[in-house]
């Protein structure tokens, strides 16, 4: 019988939690999902994107990734290796033409997600008359997660939704 990997179990848990918020609670609306296997390096990636129902000015994405080394460490039960998945959170939004809001966004994310790496990437579509910038704010976690953190996932999702709300309010006030 097939024994699912740590990645598979975490992916299903995250997916179910987000879809419950969409289908059962109506609190969010799933706007996309990716489930990829990179055959050249045997890595896996999963991401699910969502926005607050009725307000898609800011979207959130939870992503999981596992490499061949992660899978090998799990299957071969290597003592020195640390199996698990990397996790990242992304928030996509538009900001003003000079990125005026970025310092406030950075401060909010650093307060909300202390001890995590926070970065923002700005881009602009050539010919866009509004001159608005697309901002992707990303939070990367320093350590891998495993099945031991499974019960932390509902709290993580709640924290993501709360941050989504705060970013939405912040951008409305700017």
In short:
The chain is 34% helix and 33% strand. It is α+β, with helices and mostly antiparallel strands and 174 residues long. The protein has one domain.
Describe this structure in words.
- This is Group-specific protein.
- The protein is α+β, with helices and mostly antiparallel strands.
- The chain has one domain (6-173).
- The protein has four helices and six strands.
- The chain has a six-stranded antiparallel sheet.
- A hairpin with a 2-residue loop joins strand 2 (43-52) and strand 3 (55-66).
- The chain is globular.
Reconstruct the topology from this structure:
Elements: H1 6-24, E1 28-38, E2 43-52, E3 55-66, H2 68-75, E4 86-95, H3 102-112, E5 117-123, E6 133-140, H4 153-173
Antiparallel strand pairs: 1-2, 2-3, 3-4, 4-6, 5-6
Helix pairs in contact: 3-4
């Amino acid at each position: 019988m097939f024994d699912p990997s740590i990645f598979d179990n975490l992916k299903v848990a995250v997916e179910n939690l987000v879809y419950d918020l969409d289908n059962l609670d109506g609190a969010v609306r799933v706007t996309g999902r990716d489930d990829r296997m990179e055959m050249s390096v045997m890595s896996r990636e999963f991401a699910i994107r969502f926005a607050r129902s009725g307000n898609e000015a800011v979207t959130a994405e939870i992503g999981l990734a596992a490499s061949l080394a992660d899978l090998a460490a799990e299957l071969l039960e290597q003592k020195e290796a640390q199996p698990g998945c990397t996790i990242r959170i992304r928030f996509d939004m538009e900001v003003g033409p000079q990125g005026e809001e970025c310092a406030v966004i950075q401060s909010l994310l650093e307060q909300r997600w202390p001890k995590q790496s926070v970065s923002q990437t700005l881009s602009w579509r050539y010919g866009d008359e509004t001159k608005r910038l697309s901002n992707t704010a990303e939070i990367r976690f320093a350590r891998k997660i495993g099945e031991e953190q499974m019960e932390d996932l509902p709290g993580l999702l709640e924290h993501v939704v709360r941050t989504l709300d705060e970013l939405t309010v912040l951008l409305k006030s700017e």
